[in-house]
């Protein structure tokens, strides 16, 4: 069943035509990955879905409702969590305070505590650093915190923008293991990732984007085996 569908979405940055008629679908329970070179439009796609950037035309339908150009806080309340490129945690807030920001719409303290315990299940290191300021943590820990903050929203769709960027290989393995675990437990995930090989290995389906246009799509296995994809993105 389709959870998210983009139909002929066009987005502009000033005079730059960033997305040129994007068609994309994410079904419930899937990991879908969007791969492409720098500047291809991957991050813009996620920002357009979450409402940070407005679409010029086309439609974004989520759970059967037209969400095109919905403000980001409304998109979040609808169940779409966006973990942006570069993590964007609150550096002067503690780990606990950062996580609480993810549950901004929840007033029940017991519910917040239960959600936090769920985050600690995936990221036990965060529990050990609960009172540490976010800005003093390592890059890997900050990425865990950014994902944990998104999980505090209890989203139906988790959008991850370059979660492996700048991280040591062992931390990347941990992050991808958790992405798989979240999906195994029913979380739907839209993944933008520079590490195309790892992304396609865990994805049910994938899309290739070049200069704002979807040029190819298929299952993760199909794209891994595609010669053009291998030459362009898999080295």
TrEMBL record:
TM spans (from-to): none
SMART domains: AAA (SM00382)
Residues annotated as domain ABC transporter: 4-234
BP-aspect Gene Ontology terms: L-amino acid transport
Molecular function (Gene Ontology), one example: ATP hydrolysis activity
Protein keywords: Amino-acid transport, ATP-binding, Nucleotide-binding, Transport
One Pfam family linked to the record: ABC_tran
Listed InterPro entries: AAA+_ATPase, ABC_branched_ATPase_LivF/BraG, ABC_transporter-like_ATP-bd, ABC_transporter-like_CS, BCAA_Transport_ATP-bd_LivF, P-loop_NTPase
Family per record: Belongs to the ABC transporter superfamily.
Protein name: LIV-I protein F
Organism for this UniProt entry: Anoxybacillus ayderensis
